[in-house]
Amino acid sequence: MFLSDRQNDEGLAERDERIGELQEELERTTSILKNTQRVVENLRQENSDLKTENENLDNVAEQLKEQVHKEKRRGKKTVEGMRRQLAGVLDIGKGYLESDGNESSETEAGESTINLQVKAAVVRKGQYLDANLARRRSSGGVAESGKKKKKRYDSGLGFLGRKRMRGMSESENMHGDGEGLDMLASFIYDGLMNCSRKISELNTIMYYTIGERWAGNVWDELALAGMGPDGKIKPR
């Protein structure tokens, strides 16, 4: 009986020890589950935040796409406007040069006509070059008046005056042509400076909004007009 009580005590001690071990394992498992639950909650919160951020990024991407399309249309309109301005400047310059050439040709034709008239007047046989007529007039004058008329000499001042007036008119025409050329050059310079400013603004807008890739395509289009990204006219 003593042995049976001892065995029972040992069994109870082993059972109590086992129960203590199981309780410790249960506590560890409970702690692990609590930590896991906290991690799951954190992951859910992060997932929700990521979804919200992804939606915001999608909205920003759509806005950027719309802005890029707007800037593309604006850039194309700017390029077309600059081309029209350059074409207008070139047409005005061409028309001015053609009108200047026509005026110079008309002036040369008028001068040649005047020269021909002067030569014809010299070559033409007039009343003062007819010797017989001159002798008849001189003899007649002596018979009527009885006195010989004095010969009047031409001082040449009239010819010099006409030549001076002609030189003054030619200088005035040349001065007017010079003023016209200055006005044309000023107009062309203002047009080119306006195009240069627009190109600089377009370059800044494209650099900060759509990047350098599309900007390169635009500068390829601008190269047809003879311009570079810095807004300067390239020599052809």
Q: Could you describe the 3D structure shown?
A:
With 236 residues, the chain is mostly helical. The chain has one domain. The protein contains four helices and no strands. It has helices at residues 2-123, 131-145, 157-209, 211-223. Keywords: Coiled coil. Residues 19-74 form a coiled coil.
Short description:
By secondary structure, the chain is mainly alpha-helical. The chain contains 4 helices and no strands.
- Give the C-alpha Rg: 54 Å
Unreliably modeled segments: 116-131, 137-147, 153-157, 231-236
Helicity, in percent? Answer: over 70%
The end-to-end distance, rounded to whole angstroms, is 124 Å
Main sheet properties: none
Q: Class by helix and strand content?
A: mainly alpha
H/I helix tally: 4
Q: What secondary-structure arrangement, pairings included, does this model have?
A:
Blueprint: H1 2-123, H2 131-145, H3 157-209, H4 211-223
Coiled coil: 19-74
Keywords: Coiled coil
